[in-house]
Amino acid sequence: MSGFDGTVTVALLRDLLDRHARPDQSTAIDDVLISRVTDPAPEGPTMTGAVVAVVAQGTKRLALGDRVYEYGAGQYVIASVDMPVTGRFLDAGPRHPALGVGLILRPELVAELLSQAGPALAPTGGTPSGLAVSDTTPELLDAVVRLVRLLDSPSDAAVLAPLIKREILWRVISGPQGAAVHHLGRADSNLTHVARAVRWIRDHYRLPFRVEELASMAGMSVSAFYRHFQAVTAMSPIQFQKQIRLQEARLLLATRPSDVTGVCRHVGYESLSQFSREYRRQFGTPPSRHHVPPVRQE
């Protein structure tokens, strides 16, 4: 792109996001979210959702299993599967809020773009990680700015937003980390099969399961399922379930700090001692003493 100045474009995006951010992160454009965080809160658990997110200001660190990702202004992160992560902004403050914009990934739209692209864009290599970080390209950053700018022109947004969202997806799919999104749009990909098991664990995290049942759900042998699940999530299925249970427990304890036994049972643990031990190992303090400060998003 001739005459492109990345610093100026990121600054423009930062100003747009700062102006349009809402407490609940929603916007008037479907599937577009804006985050504005003013506290460098302690590391906290969250689910990523399936999203591509561009950072305009601030630096965030995410931990997924034994993998650690750090990204900042002018970079983007792809989460192709809804996964439990622990993360925090490193430098957010009232005078320097962390600002980012996210676009929810819809597999059907990805599949439609792939059908138009044909086989020439087929990814190489094995099953990709469900989380990836990369630098934005001038073309991607320009499209993101144009999408957010439509919030100032609602009448234009109804017609142009779907087109620009497709452009953003195309820039990501054809970029260096596009394999994760590419696999999301293929019904027969290993990532899609793993995502089916991930959704089951996420929706039924309180229940015990047999890995053989999940492998059957994914249409894989047990050994292949373990391998591909680990590649996507950086965890085993049991570790994945434990992360979700502990995240949910931490959120519940923020409002029910004296009900450790009730929270333990609610998230699926039968043993209070096991729950306390794993909670302490995960968060550094026993559940009976854990206080979770709120993260201010304005």
Automatic annotation (TrEMBL):
The keyword Transcription applies. The lineage of its organism: Bacteria, Bacillati, Actinomycetota, Actinomycetes, Micromonosporales. The keyword Iron does not apply. Keywords: DNA-binding, Transcription, Transcription regulation. InterPro entries: Homeodomain-like_sf, HTH_AraC, HTH_AraC-typ_CS, Tscrpt_reg_HTH_AraC_N. PANTHER family: ARAC-FAMILY TRANSCRIPTIONAL REGULATOR (PTHR43436), TRANSCRIPTIONAL REGULATORY PROTEIN (PTHR43436:SF1). Residues 195-293 form the HTH araC/xylS-type domain. It holds the Pfam family AraC_N. This is AraC-type DNA-binding protein. It comes from Actinoplanes derwentensis. GO terms for molecular function: DNA-binding transcription factor activity; sequence-specific DNA binding.
